[in-house]
Amino acid sequence: MGFGKGCHLHLIDGSAYIFRAYHALPPLSRKSDGLPVGAVAGFCNMLWRYLVENDASADAPTHAAVIFDYSSKTFRNEIYDLYKANRPEPPEDLRPQFPLTRDATRAFNLACIEVEDYEADDIIATLARQGREAGGRVTILSSDKDLMQLVGGGVEMLDPMKNRPIGLEQVEEKFGVGPDRVVDVQALAGDSVDNIPGAPGIGIKTAALLINEFGDLDTLLARAEEIKQPKRRQTLIDHAEQIRISRKLVLLDDQTPLEFGLDDLEVRDPDPEALLGFLNQMEFRTLTRRVAEKFDRDPPPLPEAPAPEVAAAPEPAGFDTTAYECIRDMAVLERWIADIHEAGFVALDTETTALDEMRAELVGISLAVAPGRACYVPLAHTVGEGDLFGGAALAEGQMDRDAALAALKPVLEDPAVLKILQNAKYDVKILARQGIDVAPIDDTMLLSYALHGGLHGHGMDALSDRYLNHQPIPIKTLLGSGKSARTFDKVSIDEATPYAAEDADITLRLWEAFKPQLHRARVTRVYETMERPLVPVLAAMEMAGVKVDRDVLSRMSNAFSQKMAGLEAEIHELAGETFNVGSPKQLGEILFDKMSLQGGKKGKTGAYATGADVLEDLAAEGHDLPARVLDWRQLSKLKSTYTDALQDHINPETGRVHTSYVISGASTGRLSSTDPNLQNIPIRTEEGRRIRTAFVAPEGRVLVALDYSQIELRILAHIAGIDALRDAFREGHDIHAMTASEMFGVPMDQMTSEVRRQAKAINFGVIYGISGFGLARNLRIPRAEAQGFIDRYFERFPGIRAYMDDTVAFAKEHGHVETLFGRRIHTPEINAKGPGAGFAKRAAINAPIQGTAADIIRRAMIRVPAAIADLPATMLLQVHDELVFEVDAGAVEDLVARVREVMEGAADPVVQLSVPLVVDAGQGANWAEAH
DNA sequence: ACGCTCACG
DNA sequence: GACGTACGTGAGCGTA
Question: Which range of residues forms the domain containing residue A782?
Answer without folding.
Answer: 740-840
